[in-house]
Amino acid sequence: MPVVLIEKESPQINVVTLNRPERRNALTLELLTELCAAINVASEQPEQRVLILR
Question: What's the count of helices (H) and strands (E) in the chain, helices before strands?
């Protein structure tokens, strides 16, 4: 199960959800790696304007 979920709300808005409720979304190496990857993917999209972190 992925620890970071990415949802596209619109062409300009992505929502990144931390998905480890059993650990209260503790910042582990795995979670930080996936979070950085999600941010990098979003930053490469020219239409991207907003990234919401939940």
Answer: 1, 3
pLDDT of residue 29: 96
Give all domains of the chain, ordered by start, each with its CATH number.
4-53 (3.30.300.220)
Q: pTM higher than 0.85, yes or no?
A: no
Report whether 54 contacts 17 (CB < 8 A).
yes
Separation in Å, CA 38 to CA 11, 16 = 15, 7
CA triple 43-20-24, angle to 5 deg: 110
pLDDT in tens, 18-48: 999 999 999 999 999 999 999 999 899 999 9
Q: How far apart are CA 8 and CA 13, in angstroms?
A: 6
